[in-house]
Amino acid sequence: MTDRPTAVVTGASSGIGAATARALAGAGFHVVLGARRVDRLEAVAKEVDGTALRLDVTDKASAAAFVEAVPECRLLVNNAGGAKGLEPVEEADEDDWRWMFEANVIGTLRLTQGLLPKLRASGDGHIITVTSIAALAPYDNGAGYTGAKHAQAMLHRTLRGELLGQPIRLTEICPGMVETEFSLVRFEGDREKADNVYRGLTPLSAEDVADVIAFAATRPSHVNLDQITLMPRAQASASRAHREG
Ligand code: NAP
Fold this sequence. Notes:
Number of domains: 1
Distance between the termini: 53 Å
Strand order of the largest sheet: 3-2-1-4-5-6-9
Low-confidence stretches: none
CATH topology: Rossmann fold
CATH architecture: 3-Layer(aba) Sandwich
Radius of gyration: 17 Å
Oligomer: single chain
Helix content: 40-55%
Bound molecules: NADP nicotinamide-adenine-dinucleotide phosphate
CATH class: Alpha Beta
Mean pLDDT: 97
CATH superfamily: NAD(P)-binding Rossmann-like Domain
Structural class: alpha/beta
């Protein structure tokens, strides 16, 4: 047991989630980390004196067991997710779309539904959802991901109204380009394609996004940061970036 408030971070085995676990631990939270790669999760948990629990957000039983194992929750960071593929709608892969909707949308639904009673019981709950600039506008070849991120954003933004009057804050984080394993996952391990995404510019780091999440989480209880968009200086939108060389 701990007297630190508990923050649950999904997708904490790499990228933004792992950096967020570190930032929240630094801000005084006891962090419960969830993801599928338990070895990596345990390494981060050890570093932050947190708790690692296996979680597959696309599996109903796994999500339920995870929720059950979390005794209390003051902050939920819905971060698990990502993209698969980058094709025109005409060539889109149905399995990729199914994965994106399962991981980003249904996963967020499962964790949010499961942890809402504990967030409410904390008397000062907070849900932070990492959507994307892909939740703000379409871009060519990205309909599966932009569609899933828009749906995830609607789930999150709808709660702002549905939970009004209850002690639960809601913050949506919309990052642009962040250099993590995101592109490697999107392009099924193709390192050259992944590196090309960040070619000729300085992308955000996972730590840049984690800083913003920790900032939102540490405002006084009456202050709700509704939506925060952050991009590299060299990026103006999902389809416009300035590259050197
Ligand atoms: P990442 O390094 O690939 O991290 C994704 C995390 O999600 C991993 O920890 C992964 O862990 C976890 N995850 C994936 N499927 C899961 C599942 N079924 N159950 C539980 N955990 C799962 O990429 P990232 O950039 O940090 O992505 C984090 C979030 O930021 C995602 O929602 C992504 O859409 C969003 N985002 C990223 C960018 C970007 O440019 N990188 C921009 C905007 C928004 P396991 O594989 O161990 O399960």
